[in-house]
Amino acid sequence: MKRESVLFVQPRQVRVVEETLAPPLPGQVQVKTLVSAISAGSELLVYRGQFPRELTIDATIEALSGEFAYPLKYGYAAVGCVVEVGFEVDPSWEGRLVFAFHPHESHFLAWPNRLVPVPQGMSPEQAAMLPNMETAVNFLLDGHPLVGEQVAVFGQGVVGLLTTALLSRMPLASLVTVDRFPLRRESSLALGANASLRADDPDLIAQLRRLLRGDRSYEGADLCYELTGSPAALDQAIAVAGFNGRIVVGSWYGQKRADLNLGGAFHRNRAQLISSQVSTVTPELSGRWTKERRLAFAWEMLRQVDISRLITHKFPVTEAARAYEMLDESPAQAIQVLITYT
């Protein structure tokens, strides 16, 4: 049979190619994709050619085990229905709605143990947000937010907004977010932020310090999240962090370098820079938290957080190039973009 696959062929050049898909091997199933979510952070780095060459894409995901080099299939949030089962596969798999960490393709083959059954009552659109929610859960595990803390989140893209939604469920002293775009700042407030500031405001640091502290004695943020993908925001997070403040770096910069001021407040404040990446669980929690436990909690949070306002655009797979062009050139218009399949 034929399938359609999204292929990154050069910087800012995406094609949808038709390929022949073989029948499932013994032990495999075929999945017909219904919807897949674009990760505007990492996928735009691939789209723009800003990924690190000769690095494994993701050794923990079989479908992404190659190297970063054009031409390249990329993406990791596909939801579909099992339409065919191979020999030796339990027939009950047929017809199941499943999630897969898989690139944007209309059909694909998979081993059942690589698929995640979608919980009853959850829509394909909700399920496509699973990687983003799991990342947000991971940020909280890495940041260890405590009751009464003052927290700043830089970046209110999809993952930033979901991180804000989770943080807002805690009894924090203050939760202030920062983003460039009005649409995202409005969504941030709707999801529970106490205030959301313009990233380009020349008085940003002073405003953050004032909003975070209020009438409390601790100056600055106990905890900052840098989720913008912009190295300049990391310098802002360092500037606003208080004594012994924690700064979780959730952005993937690709080839971009960060020019940081480490000679002033950072040095004297004993600030902590924490790298966060969802492919692993932070070592100090790995005795109790496994990937399976984190994934199960991410599903539960998807039930509780209203994600409908975050899905702003849907493009048929044949117009995938237009979806990336829009995210690249008009990011203020979009939050979560989905690719759909007929």
Describe the structure.
- The chain is 27% helix and 26% strand.
- It contains ten helices and 15 strands.
- The strands form three sheets. Strands 3, 4, 5, 6, 7, 14 and 15 form a seven-stranded mixed sheet that branches. Strands 10-9-8-11-12-13 form a six-stranded parallel sheet, sandwiched between helices. Strands 1-2 form a two-stranded antiparallel ribbon.
- Helix 3 (130-143) crosses helix 4 (158-167) and helix 3 (130-143) packs across helix 9 (291-304).
Topology:
Blueprint: E1 2-10, E2 13-20, E3 29-37, H1 42-48, E4 78-85, E5 97-100, E6 107-110, E7 116-117, H2 124-128, H3 130-143, E8 150-154, H4 158-167, E9 174-179, H5 182-190, E10 195-198, H6 204-213, E11 221-226, H7 231-240, E12 241-249, H8 265-268, E13 272-275, H9 291-304, E14 311-316, H10 320-329, E15 336-340
Parallel strand pairs: 8-9, 8-11, 9-10, 11-12, 12-13, 14-15
Antiparallel strand pairs: 1-2, 3-4, 3-6, 3-15, 4-5, 5-7
Helix pairs in contact: 3-4, 3-9
Helix count from the secondary structure assignment: 10
Cα distance spanning the termini: 15 Å
Shape by Cα distribution: globular
Q: C-alpha Rg, in Å?
A: 21 Å
Number of E strands: 15
Give the SSE string.
EEEHEEEEHHEHEHEHEHEHEHEHE
Features:
seven-stranded mixed β-sheet, alpha/beta, 342 residues, 15 strands
Summed up, what is this model?
This protein is α/β, with parallel strands linked by helices.
